[in-house]
User: Which sequence fits this backbone?
């Protein structure tokens, strides 16, 4: 039986704080290549604000290894401004642009605002039914009406299962339950959604977004249970995507490395992640 794999990545492939270690570099256009040596996927937030040029997408494809997968959000014009209505032209343009990634396009992510409520279930259903079937999708809802464990939520989950669309889970418990007064944590608290965590796989590629508190090592009690759930999904033949965040993402690479190591201890070779190179000791110091 072939082993399923878990894609592991971050919210970005470049960060000013990553000035030391294997992700460090002075040439921004080389950042994706450095990142993809170790990580197997990335969340693409840039497409939420605007579509990249076709030649840029082609460069992303060329600068990453065969196994790498991009997970990009649909533009906010579709999800937030038009609220999934009368957006056929915008959707077609976005999907056509992203399709230049070919097999490296992991999930197309539909992130809905907290103002999009279950009252608009009909609109949501029509939109999802109209999506091209050849691509993989994930959806993240933020209105609390989708988290009541009632007939509405069951109907929503059933719709996703019927269409093979993955319900994205954003686990923010570690952040909200361990607030600190520093600026980066306060910024994250104001920007991230505080919604209940309902763990479910509605498709073949469940996506988990996890954000730690500033002291990420002190909140592993929130992260470690995900190792069991991801292992279960792998044993079911699913292909999970896991994205690790910290309040400012300064230490997100360390969290991802920890998660990959722990997952491989449970199911050897399941985490698509290359460990950091071991620094070479200065031989002159030995004599």
Assistant:
């Amino acid at each position: 039986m072939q082993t399923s794999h878990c894609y592991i990545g971050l919210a970005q492939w470049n960060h000013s704080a990553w000035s030391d270690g294997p992700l460090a570099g002075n040439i921004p256009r080389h950042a994706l290549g450095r990142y993809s040596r170790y990580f197997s996927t990335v969340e693409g937030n840039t497409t939420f604000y605007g579509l990249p040029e076709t030649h840029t997408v082609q460069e992303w494809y060329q600068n990453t290894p065969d196994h790498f997968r991009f997970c990009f959000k649909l533009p906010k014009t579709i999800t937030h401004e038009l609220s999934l209505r009368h957006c056929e032209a915008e959707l077609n343009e976005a999907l056509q642009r992203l399709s230049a990634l070919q097999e490296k396009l992991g999930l197309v992510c539909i992130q809905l605002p907290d103002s999009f409520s279950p009252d608009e279930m009909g609109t949501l259903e029509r939109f999802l039914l109209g999506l091209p079937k050849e691509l993989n999708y994930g959806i993240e809802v933020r209105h609390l009406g989708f988290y009541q464990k009632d007939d509405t939520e069951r109907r929503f989950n059933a719709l996703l299962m019927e269409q093979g669309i993955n319900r994205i889970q954003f686990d923010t418990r570690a952040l909200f339950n361990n607030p600190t007064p520093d600026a980066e944590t306060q910024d994250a608290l104001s920007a991230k959604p505080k919604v209940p965590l309902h763990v479910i796989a509605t498709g073949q590629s469940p996506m988990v977004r996890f954000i730690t508190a500033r002291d990420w090592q002190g909140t592993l009690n929130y992260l470690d249970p995900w190792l069991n759930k991801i292992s279960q999904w792998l044993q079911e033949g699913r292909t999970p995507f896991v994205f690790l965040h910290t309040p400012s993402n300064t230490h997100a690479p360390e969290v991802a490395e920890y998660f990959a190591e722990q997952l491989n201890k449970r199911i050897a070779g399941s985490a698509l992640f290359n460990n950091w190179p071991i620094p070479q000791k200065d031989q002159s110091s030995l004599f």
